[in-house]
Design brief:
Layout lengths: L5 H30 L11 H20 L9 H24 L2 H14 L4 H22 L15
């Protein structure tokens, strides 16, 4: 029976992780196609998942071919950043149906910008511009019906 050192185990995991992602991406591509792709003017329910799945397949295939560098040591602040990212995204999901899209979007963008170490000034500016961009792209251009909330004119 052979035992692996921690370094050898990490080396193997760096080879297997992209392969697992590649397999998952292929499964997602097949599932997307089964949902129906529609056409260019009327995308079906599988169109966007197909695009995301193809991205996963291409990225993981690239990592299988080129390899992954061993990650650096993580510290508690890195884990706190991940926790804040997950919490802000969960907050966005919870607040979206309650108070509409603009306020949770601005709060989440601000949290993420601060998470990346940006100044409050840049974070606030990006939050405002990002919220406007979300509105224009999803509501005005793509016709997605997002809740506007009680603060918007004509809201609720």
């Amino acid at each position: 029976m052979t035992s692996l050192t921690a370094e050898e185990g990490a080396e193997r995991s760096h080879r297997w992780a992209p392969l697992l992602l590649l397999c998952g991406g292929v499964v997602a591509v097949v599932a997307s196609v089964r949902l129906g792709l529609g056409d260019v003017t009327q995308p079906g329910p599988g169109a966007w998942p197909l695009l995301a799945s193809v991205g996963v397949v291409l990225t993981s295939a690239w990592l299988v071919v080129t390899g992954i560098e061993a990650p650096e040591e993580t510290d508690r602040s890195d884990l706190a950043h991940v926790g804040l990212a997950v919490a802000s995204t969960a907050g966005f999901v919870v607040l979206l149906p309650l108070i509409g899209m603009p306020v949770p979007a601005a709060l989440m963008i601000t949290a993420w910008m601060r998470l990346f170490g940006e100044t409050w000034r840049l974070a606030m500016l990006t939050a405002v511009l990002g919220t406007v961009a979300l509105q224009v792209v999803f509501v005005d251009l793509l016709g997605v019906s997002l809740p506007v909330g009680p603060l918007a004119p004509g809201g609720w």
